[in-house]
Amino acid sequence: MIGSDFTLLATTLLPFLLVIGLLVIFGVIAYLRRQARQQAWGELAARTGLTFESGGLFSPMRVTGTYRGHPLTLDTFTRSTGKNSTTYTRIQMGANNPSALSLAIYDENVLSKVGKALGMQDIQTGDDELDRRFTIKGQPEPMIASLFTSIGLRQKLLQARSVHVEVRGQQVYWQQRGAESNADHLQFLFDLLGDLAEAVDRAGGGAPAAWG
Q1: Mean local confidence (pLDDT), 121-128
Q2: Cα separation of 165 and 67, whole Å?
Q3: Is the pTM of this model over 0.90?
Q4: CA nearest to 142, candidates 125, 129, 128, 155
Q5: What is the mean pLDDT of the chain?
Q6: 211 lies in a domain?
Q7: What's the distance, CA 14 to chain centroid?
Q8: Which single residue of 92, 96, 101, 160 could bond 209 by disulfide (Cβ 3.0 to 4.6 Å)?
Q9: In which domain, by residue range, is 95 found?
Q10: Is residue 153 part of a domain?
Q11: CA-to-CA distance for 55 and 76, rounded, in angstroms?
Q12: Number of domains in the chain
């Protein structure tokens, strides 16, 4: 009888213990990933002269300050769809955009290729390599095409492992799925956005912005 009761108890508790064990494992993995990101973002802030905020229970981890004369914020956000949620890393950089140019640059994919085949047009820069790799949209089109005469901007776009960049009003914006912990890659992206912000300013014939 005792053996039977023990077997019943073990059978009842086993699923519960498995769930607890999985939660502990996921918690440890999340903690280690956060620690790695804290270290990388702290190192990034130190080398770029920015400020690192480690965050807490109700505040996000961030890197903020002025980079190459432009206000910058690096952080993460979560987007929920139904029962699923996805974390993204984003960089927002202030830009002087006197012509109110709007722009989106993202990697060519299957859907965009199908769209082109159905007659949906994106902006052609005249640079075969850029036009083959990226989908580019925005207004005004002639001004957008002129952005890519910047050799530095062109090279960085082609070197980037993935691109999802937008110009929205007075802001240059980048995002990537997942919590990025590579300090070298993030600094590369800072420079990519800095080159784009400067190209937008030149295209509009504006003077450098005076950020407060």
Answers
A1: 85
A2: 17
A3: no
A4: 125
A5: 83
A6: no
A7: 41
A8: 96
A9: 2-204
A10: yes
A11: 11
A12: 1
